[in-house]
Amino acid sequence: MASEAVYSHRDPMLKKRDDFEDILEERRNCSDLRYALKCYTPVVYKGLTPCKAGVLKNMVLQSDQLHYVINQVSKETGKAPEDVQEEASAILEEMAHRMQLSTVRFFAFTLCKVFKTLFRSICVNEEGIQRLQQAIQEHPVVLLPSHRSYMDFLLMSYILFTYDLALPVIAAGMDFMGMKIVGEMLRMSGAFFIRRSFGGDKLYWAVFSEYVKTILKNGLAPVEFFLEGTRSRTAKSLTPKLGLLNIVMDPFLKGEVFDINVVPVSISYERILEETLYARELLGVPKPKESTSGLFKARRVLSEDYGSIHVYFGQPVSVRSLAEGRVNRCQFNLTPRHIPKRPSDDVHSFVNAAAYRLVRAQEENMVLKPWVLLASLLLQNHHQDLDQDRAAGPERGMGLDELTEEALWLRDVCRQYGAFLHWPDHVPPSEVVSSSLDLHRGLVRISEGRVRLAVEHAGPSGPGVHPGAGPEEQLLNQAVVVLSCASYRNQALHVFLRPALLASAMHIATSSNKQEVFNSFSFLRNMFSNEFILCPGATMQDFEEACFLLVKTGVLQITEQEVLSTHRGHRTLAFLTRMMDPFLQGYQVICMFLCEEASEALTEKTFIPAVRGFMVKQLLSGRLRYTEVLSSDLQKNALAALLRLGAVLKTKGADQTTLKVNRVMVNSLEDTLGGKLPTQKAAVARL
Amino acid sequence: CGSTSNTDAGGLFMWMSLIGHSLRQEIMKWNGWGYVDSKFQFNKKGQAEFTGKRYRLSGMVMPALKEWFESTFGASLQHKTPASAIPNSSAVQPPILNEAFVEDLKSTGIPFSQDAEDRVFRAHGHCLHEIFALREGKVGRVPDMVVWPSNHNDVVKIVELACKHNVCLIPYGGGTSVSSALECPPEETRTIVSVDTSQMNRILWIDEKNLTAHVEAGIVGQELERLLNESGYCTGHEPDSMEFSSLGGWVATRASGMKKNIYGNIEDLVVHIRMVTPQGVIEKSCQGPRMSTGPDIHHFILGSEGTLGVVTEVTMKIRPMPEYQKYGSVVFPNFEQGVACLRELTLITNVFAGHALKPQKFYITKFKGFDPNRLCVATLLFEGDRERVLQHEKQVYDIAAKFGGLAAGEDNGQRGYMLTFVIAYLRDLGMDYYVIGESFETSVPWDRVLDICRNVKERIIRECKERGVQFPPLSTCRVTQTYDAGACVYFYFAFNYRGLSDPVHVYEQVEHAARDEILANGGSLSHHHGVGKLRKEWMRETVSRVGMGMLKSVKDYVDPGNIFGNRNLL
User: Fold this and answer.
1) Domain check: are B105 and B220 in the same one?
2) Digit-coded pLDDT (tens) for B444-455
């Protein structure tokens, strides 16, 4: 698939971004009540024919598409069409939003109070707001915020209300509905609820897709959903889910609207509310069910400082121009448009490419705080300490000056790579560092002028073990801190990803031959394409971008034949390889597990606990260094990659899905990741 | 295209071909639509008027037109773009003559001409770029000769000689093409002979038992109706261009008329066709009303656009003239309702001819309770015996009422029909004041009508903006024909081109984009204008690769030497 059209590489230094305004500032000076009761008259879509919620439901229930599916389901199941119609109506009832301005005002008032307590500022790019306002008037709008916190969609609606913009209807997971009152209140502020999985349920899909399309086509409200499908627990962007994107692009592809504007929104939190919650979840402590009382227990949260939030409304993307030359819209000419059809190959690859492009647009406009750089450095230092067996000694950690110096160096690298870094240049660097450390004091320890992660190291049998805490529990406690820290480092991963893949490729390649390095790069990129956002089919561009950045910054010299590191490039290369190392090692360990330990009866369900058990053993015995690999996210991604590459096969049984391991292949992948095998053309072709 | 219905023009004038071929040029514009004496102009008081005596509108002053014109296009009467004078013969390329062909042709006694004016007159249709070039005095490749066969046998002789001497023939009927079909291929190096069929204009016989008439194909629409009316009959085929377009042209392009709901399109009206091709004459052996004898060979001829031969004679269905005719109109609150109503009407009854359009303000009457920016008028025509007409009329108005439609009187109906023919004259007025435009059509399933209208109109506006057009364009549409399975939609597109260095190029780019949009929205390449050279590039995707191959193999068999070398269609 050609991806040039959706992804072009240029000097990232040239990226131009808007300035921010703090919307809490005004709130701190005037009445919240007056604000919540302000006159709210948003501009609307120019082709809008307004209608009430009840009318909307009727439009959906009476649509040709739904009629068709109802008849189809009725024929297949033998149920009377009226009964199926009833079911459809019930599904819609369960799903539909009931937006009420009064509830929105209530939320606006409450959120004011909450936000002011939790956050120092909420910064919004006002130019983006103006662009959005324009976009809403012209065409139906889809809002695609990044998803890092429960807060995201309330925050979005709050901002839109503040700027007098049309309030979106939001696709929310059904789990919210479990929160009795809150669920209903969310509904009244524009949320509609969808079941997490409804795989084969035709009727559900029909009601759902028709509901979204009806809102969109008529321009009743902007439709908001999360391209990543769920909150990213790791702060890395997740592989985009295509279901809803397919639905919202459909009206354009079928000519039912002239165009649709898609607006990526990047929400970056200086400190994530769910920080430790996520880490625990990734480590297999089960996720607390969303419940109202749980939310109130979170009151403790209210007494802490969570820094600032940056919300960047990206450039609206016209679906029409995205699709130009990529989708032949005539393909819908020969069947009535209301008959549901699986997307054709070209539509599928178009939507997929668009989804990646949009996630990358989100990534690009994520604001990075100095702490992100500090977290990256401290994590690397932590691992070096482990390596050199001084994890418990007095030389562990980094001197504050050393940390500051390294951070400044990294700041400059970051900027050269085009990161959207908010480093206050007018503040002395040491103050920047100390205030960042202060905000995240739960994750770091500062003593005698040295900084380290707040990880109590005991070693397998060393001193300092808390009485009553077994080694495994201790390990998990350490991992919570490491994973929390990693989630901040992950915020910057997209900035370093391509150069880092190249650095690692050079590391595992058997020579500096350019083709060989490219093969290794291609191998790693392919291996990690479930782990990171890597646009399908863009290997060449990614490689060129990585080369461009590293040559520009004097790290590499690239000739016709060879890729060579320069003397002064060593520091950068070392940093970049260390950044990738936990992932490389994680995937290797999983391969090792599959080759050595996995039994014939390994199932999809038991995979994660089994891998985790294996890893814990390895960690405790000191054979494995990175506690980060305990993240179930990494484990799932690795499995997905192995399945994609055919190294593991799924066999669906009656009640469970078993995993069949191709040991030869897994073994060879493990070796290649460790740099033992050359990534020959044949190996790449096989992948 | 412009039109008049026979009742408008009836009896006021005679067709010039009765007097002699060269007169056609004297009463018709050489660089614009229609008759020399009929045109819109702004008089000394700055009011618009329509000159001449031929039409009901002739001699009328239309005060609202100026305001509409100025406000719609941002045009001003101060900024004129007058047409240049007719180019003298030195501006026209000297003819490429095949002397041997000329010698042989002389011996047949068939009249012909190498006069520059005769040649230029037959070198174009009415596409915007063709007329624009003429108004600027620019003339490209033109036919080298014009011949006037007076019957089928003359055509047989001409085609034989053309084959013998390898001469290129381009049939010419009424010259109302809007598909670049009459343009001479610039790369053609052979002698190009324009075969003007205007002298083949007689009704050879009328068969009252079978209700058919056998007619020479060069006859133009209004003449055919006038002559049939004298005997108490009509064909009912009334394309918008019927004043000027010919029977042969209708067959060659698959024409459609505004009363097709009652009488049918040209393919429904023909019983027998005779065409002269390089391989000989093609025709059927009998006049059975329907046959199962393999694919209908008429369908190789219908729509062949002059690439296979010259249609010389056609047997057509005729009907007794309707006893009673009544115009009508319905006003709807919006276009959506109007379209929904036309669909309903089509399914229930086929006894009317109707259009739904969004009227422009220069002729609109105000209707109480309707938003003038959104309302939509449907014009109707009922024909038949009086009692049934009145009965159908009531039925139609009852259905219309269900869609919020109000009867808006006979006058509005008649005016609506009148408007379809003046539009073409309006374009000439625009071209005097920096405004260029055109209409183009498509056919589309009912469920797509509203979507295609919205998207194509929007695409036009957007493309104009992107291409630097300084003024918002006129971009509007109407439904002109209805079928059980869909409708024919016309788009009107015009803009003020002040500030553009190459307005025709911009126009063509926008029209091209609009056609892409039409196809992407499930519309056809053409409902009745044809493909010509203007829309050739989309033919393959329209009829599939195999379909293209079928058409090509027919061309290869019938005309291996590409004598009919206008390069249309394929």
Assistant:
1) yes
2) 999 999 999 999
Interface check for B513 against chain A (CB to CB < 8 A): the answer is no
- Residues with Cβ within 8 Å of B119's Cβ and at least 6 positions away in sequence, in order, are B92, B95, B113, B142, B143, B144, B145, B146, B194
What pairing do the DSSP bridges indicate for beta strands B233-234 and A444-447?
A: unpaired
B515 part of a folded domain = yes
pTM of the predicted model over 0.80: yes
The answer, yes or no, to whether residue A682 has pLDDT greater than 60, is no
Instruction: Read off the CATH number of the domain in which B515 is found.
Output: 3.30.300.330
Tell me the nearest-neighbour CA distance from A330 into chain B, angstroms.
5
Residue A52 C-beta-side C-alpha neighbours within 13 Å: 1
pLDDT digit string, tens, across residues B231-268: 999 999 999 999 999 999 999 999 999 889 889 999 99
Note the Cα A508 to chain centre separation in Å: 28
* One domain, residues B412 and B549: no
- Domain termination site, one of B416, B447, B482: B416
- The boundaries of the domain holding residue B206 are 78-321+530-569
Q: Tell me the DSSP string of B188-199.
A: --SPEEEEEGGG
Residues in chain B: 570
CA distance to A194, A322, A346, A412, B22, per residue, from A313 (Å): 25, 19, 29, 26, 70
Q: For chain B, how many structural domains are there in total?
A: 3
Q: Which residues of A touch B451 (CB under 8 A)?
A: 255-256
Residues of B forming the active site: 490
Residue B214 lies in a domain: yes
Distance CA B40, CA B23 (A): 23
Task: Kindly state the helix (H) or strand (E) to which residue B41 belongs, with its residue range.
Answer: strand B40-42
The shortest C-alpha distance from A60 to chain B (Å) reads 17
Name the residue with tokens 């994609």: A644
Pick the last residue of a domain from B416, B447, B467: B416
The whole-angstrom separation of Cα A572 and Cα A565 is: 10
Rounded Cα distance, A423 and A654, in Å? 56
Give domain status of residue B423, yes or no: no
Q: Does B498 lie in the same domain as B406?
A: no
User: What tokens were used for A1?
Assistant: 């698939």
B458 in contact with A, Cβ within 8 Å:
yes
Cα–Cα dist B246/B311, whole Å = 11
- Report residues of chain B scoring pLDDT below 70: 1-23, 349-368
